[in-house]
Specification:
Layout (H helix, E strand, L loop, with lengths): L1 E7 L1 H5 L3 H10 L3 E8 L3 H7 L9 H8 L4 E8 L2 H9 L12 H5 L8 E3 L3 H11 L8
The structure holds adenosine-5'-diphosphate (ADP) and magnesium ion.
The site of adenosine-5'-diphosphate has 9 residues, from loops.
Length: about 140
């Protein structure tokens, strides 16, 4: 069993696709073991995306991530880190495979509806960033 962090980003919440995203996890056998809606401030977004602080899109990305509420979730399942990345699709929705979340709902390379941890180490950091042990069930 593995865990990963998923986020429905501000564009996904604004587009009313929280349910669509959740449905894709549940219909693919992925369990949601924690979930909440929050609205990050600039410092919180910068801390979350610290690995990207040298990237040219860092300022824009953190501003976008604070532009509205997000839904953060902990997903659990076998191989769930890779499975979630597969359901999400490529970062750039134009390159995302048919039937993926980003291909179906994203409109922009930055405003791409979902975040998903990319490795066990980042998953552990990202889950701990938003949830304490009492907020994760099972
Ligand atoms: P992913 O979310 O697929 O793991 P990255 O970790 O590379 O992608 O980037 C984090 C987020 O930064 C992306 O989901 C997207 O919102 C934004 N982003 C990535 N690349 C670009 C880019 N070239 N221009 C604008 N925003 C970008
Ligand atoms: Mg990433």
């Amino acid at each position: 069993m593995e865990r990963t962090l998923s986020i429905v980003k501000p564009d996904g919440v604004a587009k009313n696709v929280i349910g669509e995203v959740v449905k894709r996890f549940e219909s693919n056998g992925i369990k949601i073991v924690a979930m909440k809606m929050i609205h990050m401030n600039q410092a919180q977004a910068e801390g979350f995306y610290a690995v990207h602080k040298e990237r040219p899109f860092f300022g824009s990305l953190t501003e976008f991530m604070t532009s509205g509420p997000i839904v953060v979730m902990v997903l659990e399942g076998e191989n769930v880190i890779a499975k979630n990345r597969e359901l999400m699709g490529a970062t750039n929705f134009k390159e995302a495979a048919e039937g993926t979340i980003r291909r179906d709902f994203a409109t922009d390379i930055e405003k791409n509806v979902v975040h998903g941890s990319d490795a066990p180490e980042t998953a552990a950091f990202e889950i701990g960033y938003f949830f304490n042990s009492f907020e994760i069930v099972g």
